Amino acid sequence: MSRYTLMDYFSIYVEEWDSLLEEFLRHLAMTSFSVVLALIIAVPLGIFITRNKAVSNVVIGIANVMQSIPCMALLAMGIPFLGVGETLAIFMVFVYAFLPILKNTYTGISGISPVSMEVARGIGLTRMQQLRRVELPMAMPYIMSGIRIAAVSSVGTMTIAAFAGANGLGSFIQLGMNSLNCPMTIMGAVAAALMALTLDFLLGRVERAFTSEGLLPQDQIKNLSLSVRSRRKAMAAALCGALLVVSVASYASIIA
Question: What is the mean pLDDT of the chain?
Answer without folding.
Answer: 85
